[in-house]
Hints:
Strand order of the largest sheet: 1-2
CATH class: Mainly Alpha
Shape: globular
CATH superfamily: dinb family like domain
Number of strands: 2
Distance between the termini: 43 Å
Order of helices and strands: HHHEEHHH
Radius of gyration: 15 Å
Amino acid sequence: MNATQHSTLHPAIRECAEAVAATASGIREEQLQDRTPCEKFTVAELVDHLGGTLLSAARAARREAQPGEDSAAPAMTPQALADSAGRAAAAWSDPAAYDGTTEFGPGEMPASLAASITLHELALHGWDLAQATGRSFDLSQETERAAVGVVEQLAEQARGNGSYGPPVPVPSDAPAFHRALGISGRNPAWNG
Length: 192
């Protein structure tokens, strides 16, 4: 059992999932076509992307088969996103979920990496949605540190596949989560 990964990642996944659910619950219909700090997504597109990713993350934690590429999933609503965030957090609450390998995203990977990607998606895209819809996305210092850790872990690969833009400089005394945002190519001061 990978107790260290679970004790570090699960509280952060749970906290970010709660923040995503709160953000999603406040999205108004007229905000769905607004831009987000993640330049390739509108609010509606990001709700759909994140919701689908979190459903896959829950399946990965439970070692369930992922749907085939040709199976069309229904478009996510903000409420469905909130539900999928809760499902992902619940699935990663099992310490055994962090052991061995699982199927997630592009294929099979270490389960602890799938958990890291889940936190990365929740933290960064949760912040994107909050910024785009005028909501706060407040995290504890422990969760901010966990988020920085996974963003640093994934940065080289994410920059290589176009998921991250060039790093954005942030002051050395900035909150930990601002450093994570900057590493991922996001401007912590983004304001539409």
